[in-house]
Design brief:
- By secondary structure, the chain is α+β, with helices and mostly antiparallel strands.
- The chain has a single domain, classed as Alpha-Beta Complex (Peptide Deformylase).
- The protein contains 4 helices and 8 strands.
- Strands 1-2-3-6-7 form a 5-stranded antiparallel beta sheet, sandwiched between helices. Strands 4-5-8 form a 3-stranded antiparallel beta sheet.
- The longest helix is centred in the first third of the chain and has 16 residues.
- About 8% of the residues have low confidence.
- The chain binds nickel (II) ion.
- The site of nickel (II) ion (NI) has 6 residues, from α3.
Length: 193
Amino acid sequence: MTVRTVLRMGDARLWEVSKPVENFATAQLRELLQDMRDTMHAMDGAGLAAPQIGVALRVVIFGVQAASTSSGQAAATGSGQTSARYPDADSVPETVLINPVITPINDQTEPGWEGCLSVPGLRGEVERHSHIRYQGYDENGALIDRVVSGFHARVVQHECDHLDGILYPMRIKDLTRFGYTAELFPGRDLPDE
Ligand code: NI
């Protein structure tokens, strides 16, 4: 178990374009993914991209349990994904996604609040595609191909942006919709990502 330091906005490594993974099912890839999972769960994140721990590879992980179904499961699995911290979220399956490709299904977009472990304590409203197809590979090189909507689609778009050196504040159109979580949502204990 290795919880790695998450780079914060301003660190130049977060602006880099990451490189594709070329070899699957390797010890190095397994170790990277274990560190990413440990780090994401320790920080109560919904997702994490490899460049956030200083590894410039096209690897993301994500997963959220919905508030209505997960309280017992979260306790049982000890995953650290406490649903109450994502009160408005639909569940998103725990996923490893490598060399992802995102294709919008149509032109529909929707605004939504986002946070990021690399931008702690802040939230911003970002417009994202409502419906996307995403494709990529798991750690063993098996194909992943899903069509998703809403919060799931948002999480994937946010995480994959990290692979191209994009942090969500760069996508905020109205900077009055950007601020400290505690001021924007007083009384709610919301996570950083
Ligand atoms: Ni992020």
